[in-house]
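tool_log.txt
---
The assistant was asked to compare two proteins side by side. It first ran the structure predictor on the initial sequence, then on the second. Raw inputs and outputs are pasted verbatim so the downstream comparison step can read them without reformatting.
(1)
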Amino acid sequence: MNSRERFLAACAGAKLDRPPIWVMRQAGRYLPEYRALKASSSFLEMVRTPDLATEVTLQPLRRFALDAAILFSDILVIPEALGQGYKFRDTGGIEMEFRIESRAQIDALAPAEAVPERLEYVAATLRRLKGELAGTRALLGFGGSPWTLATYMLEGGSSEDFERSKLLFYTDRPAFDALLERITAALIVYFRMQIAAGADAIQIFDSWGGIIAGRDYRDASLRWIEQIVAALPAEFPVILYAKGTAPHLADQAASGVRVVSVDWTQDLAAVRRALPATVAVQGNLDPVLLNTSPAIVQREASRLLASMRGANGHIFNLGHGIMPHAKIECMQALVDTVTGWQN
């Protein structure tokens, strides 16, 4: 069984001799080769240039025996394709070209049909990656959830309180729904494009799902995700990662996704027992551990693996993205611990 086969078997709920492993943000600032490339090319240039995006995607696979590659891109390519560009603030965080303040601006967004042409560079990168991987490792595409993308579009960038997004949800539901419908339609086209270009699975990042009141999570976020999953090929592996949404894990598992990715605050073995066996789980080592020492990483990863011994459908990952100051030797210890594990 090669890495790609192992990953897809885990998505299908199989019991394996060891779980497959990949890591959110496995390509990026903690790698010296990424920093060297970044010195001559901006982040947006790398995202938009298939040769560069392919190179960045493959960098961690050259160092570590990971079972999957994940496309190097950004969730905000969808707002950009709809006509709302983005950039990175000098002080940190995201800044959109403008913020949506009216229904007229929502109605003026580009249609979903514009996505394939405007994001052809993403499809080109996936096709290159598919050829490079040659079926040996799984290839993941991804995108943001409609709710998470809407928060950036409504706030005008990164936010601490998400006030404008919540106000629109509570005070003008028709406008809110119109925006989410636009984003959802665009994501359906985008994910179908990624699948056609060779993605073996899609991860949806509902990064800000945890900031909406519990009783309103379905209307603000989950129902739109359900629409996306229903529009994709039957049984295609969709992974949902929604930080801070522990009370909704059962609902997420019932949404049609094949894998629920769990943040580090949850007992993964307890989550595994609580969810249907037909839905796999992903996670969920605390990313800060990769800033400690190889011995600590080995100890804590082994504890997590032992807690999941014999469980079906487990993909090993962090409970959030790898941190910029993660240590190479800690990442190596993590991969070695998981790939050397015997259930």
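(2)
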Amino acid sequence: MSSQLPRASARGGLRLRGTQLVWGARTYLLAIVNASPDSFSGDGRCDPLAAAALAKEHIHNGADLIDVGAESTRPGHTPITAEVEAARLLPAVRAIREAAPAALISVDTFKPEMFRAAHAAGGDVLNSIWGLDDALIESAVECGAPVIAMHNKRVAVYERDVVDEVLRTLERYAVAAVRGGVPAAQVILDPGIGFGKTAEHNLALLRSLDRLVALGFPTAIGTSRKSTIGKLTGRAVEERAFGTAATVALAIAAGIDIARVHDVAAMHDVVQVTDAVTRGWRPAGWSDALP
């Protein structure tokens, strides 16, 4: 796979609202705020003030970015109209922006006009579960926004190797985004664990995250509370923090830059310990002196 385009291999990063995220320096937490009544994890916050309160709690617990979405993507979900999405999403984005002026807000939508409206309401980053097309790229460039492009598929059928197909698709999105005007360091690739994939597909991708990192772009992963963890552990959705922690630690060891999570406080500890081992990160005031 070779796009013959500049990559983010020199790392680089994002600078948003006075905050700089430097790829490779440490792992960043993208905290989930669902403005939907039918989230698979049962943590929806349809009231904008409740969404803002949860966002502030996530930030207090160590989140680097807040991811706000208003349309459920759980298996068997019923698609909603743009009007319904806007009625849920935009008040939540505005409320979070008002409550946390410096917060970095990722907007979970795959509709270009919805992202434009959410960006105007205070959003910063486009997070599309259906990858990128020309219209989405155009909306991101128009807003000067970084993008998270996720792999997805309506039916979990792969003619050849699942990892090969996912990487090929993600690289195509990245190439299109860079050619369309998004800087390479602002094109973040997500393999889409749990989206259009069986449990075995998910495990194959988790074993191959180093290949995703090798594409040269910043990367993200969202394994939090997913059904594959439930199948492996037998745990209910609200009891999957330890299983999620294992996948986050493995992802960091592979070089993943962003982990999208529900349980921010617990995953913050996972990130700090794993970053200390794999990336040389140390907390402020660190001393190696014996106690």
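---
observation on (2): Residues 27-278 form a domain with the TIM Barrel fold (CATH 3.20.20.20). The CA atoms of residues 29 and 63 lie 5 Å apart.
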